[in-house]
Amino acid sequence: MTNGDKKTFYITTPIYYPSGKLTIGNSYTTIAADTLARYKRAEGFDVFFLTGTDEHGLKIEEKAEENKMKPKEYVDMMASKIKELWKLLEISNDKFIRTTDDYHVKAVQKIVERLIKQGDVYLGEYTGWYSVDDEEYFTESQLAEVYRDKDGKVIGGKAPSGHEVQLVKEPSYFFKMSKYADRLLKYYEDNPTFIEPEIRKNEMINNFIKPGLEDLAMSRTTFNWGVQIPSDPKHVVYVWVDALLNYITALGYGTDDDSLFKRYWPADVQLVGKEIVRFHTIYWPIILMALGIDLPKQVFGHGWLLMKDGKMSKSKGNVVYPEMLVGRYGLDPLRYYLMRAMPFGNDGIFTPEDYVDRINYDLANDLGNLLNRTISMVNKYEDGKVTTVENVSDYDQKLVDASEQAIKEYRQHMDKFEFPDALASVWAFIGRANKYIDETKPWVLAKDPEAKAELASVLGHLVESLRLIALMISPVMTQSPIKMFAQLGLDYQKDTELKFGETSVGTTVTSDPEPIFPRLDTDEEVKFIKDKMAEEQAKNGNGKLSKSAQAKANEQAESDDDYPKEITYDDFSKVKMVVCEILDVKKVANADKLLQFKLDDGSGIDSQILSSIYEFYPDYEKLVGKKVIAVTNLKPRKIRGEWSNGMLLSSEKGDDVILATVDNSHKNGAILS
């Protein structure tokens, strides 16, 4: 839609369930949404950014009881804490909705009554398995594990999440999901980018729609903490229906003032974690179809931020909280790390080592060093003043060309929510600017009176490059660009044109520069993060787990890995494993752990794979000539400025990591099956 001369852009996060303290994994979605919202504002869009809390349901009722509080008291406390966290993370949301807000409750009641009246919702009886932790219903066939008595009768089980389920038998209102199944499938076909990444769409079609979409039990009578159905008040609306409607009630749908709804709906993108894609791409669009409302343009289901031992979980004791990282290292390193290190759409792995390395190498060495060198040279050679950005040499033009390419790639990636790639493009330009210093040698030019114009141009080009870099990182890093502009003597409110030009001319840089990213002691900081994680483990572990969580932990302790016991042949057939010969191997510059392998995979074209195994192979030259196994059909990733086109297989046991090798009788390019 448009608002006058501006295009509108409506972006939402899922509303968070306030049953516990949020981790960096929970914060990831909101920082991603904030990054996109800030980028779109900078590009001239009229943005509306929504986040909030999902405050109803049995789990909340139970949590309140555990804390000896009334449900409303409990959610008031938790919502306040989440708002404080978003303030700490400098989230620029335009609205924070709570499902206990009066206007939302009234709108939900109005909508449900309408759905009953028009025949999309009917009264029946539900019998099935319910997970309180997931707030989700399951059929017996959907359970990950089933418990039976001695006669073989099912008496319980576990949901796919690992949470216990309980048998529920009660009257319930059902939504006729089956009525809209064909229409939904056609919508998928007609709108191929509605669900991204595409793998999520395939999961929805194959796992839920094709087997037959069941009607949804959408009310409960066994607890009270929820939105009552006015015509039948012993029923409260199923928490997921209540929650999903927030995306339109927040805009005033179902109220006397729906001007925001008319202005911003349909949503341009709704960001969700992959575990709740089903609710947002099946239940949600069907509800909208029944109401005669346009569907959102896109639902993007991102991956999880994992730890080495699996998903971040309080029961495992492997949680990392954002407050700790921000308090120790500042906000921008956290925001940068989450947007750079985690491939958007896929799972990413957090390690303390990687976190500290990103700060030291990307922020302190690459960006911080470029800023410090530039300001020092402008002060030393030009009395702190920038007088020109006119091209004097071929090096100048090449830097301008590199800036234009970086800006183009940055925008292309940001428009597709490819935040790591967008930042990689910026960091490639940072690397080019650092190289430009080495090429032009300002310290040599300063000794030659005939090179005065060339020296002034070099320093002007560097200041202008830093201005562009600060603007490109500003959607991700909210504080550093302001500090950069201040040190460069620029106006953060005015000098915002994302194009190499005259903006920096006439500026006077600070005479007292300070490093904006001090270099960290790696061993000390890794130990600090690990110690904090151990503290959380002590709080949440050591016999304090629930019986079911403790049983699960015991099972994992007895197992050598955390992988699922079973996958299908179709799953396995998707992985292409190839015998490759190592032709060359070397360390990646500015990366303590990365080795760069040049491989013969039998195709006639050498391939390249990066692997973080230097600590296990300090004499890596001895690997040349060995034959290894590589997964070659993974999506290429750019790591430290180098492309990695696959993954080398290795075995891991305890602290030992060993590359999987085969003898020379295996031909290069042979496929393992």
TrEMBL record:
Top-level enzyme category: ligase
Primary localization: cytoplasm
InterPro entries the record matches: aa-tRNA-synth_I_CS, Anticodon_Met, Met-tRNA-synth_bsu_C, Met-tRNA_synth, Met-tRNA_synth_2, Methionyl/Leucyl_tRNA_Synth, MetRS_core, NA-bd_OB-fold
EC number annotated for this UniProt entry: 6.1.1.10
A Pfam short name: tRNA-synt_1g
Reaction(s) this enzyme catalyzes, per UniProt: tRNA(Met) + L-methionine + ATP = L-methionyl-tRNA(Met) + AMP + diphosphate
Keywords, sorted A to Z: Aminoacyl-tRNA synthetase, ATP-binding, Cytoplasm, Ligase, Nucleotide-binding, Protein biosynthesis, RNA-binding, tRNA-binding
Annotated TRNA-binding domain residues: 571-673
Compartments where found: Cytoplasm
Family: Belongs to the class-I aminoacyl-tRNA synthetase family. MetG type 2B subfamily.
Subunit structure: Homodimer.
Protein name from the UniProt record: Methionine--tRNA ligase
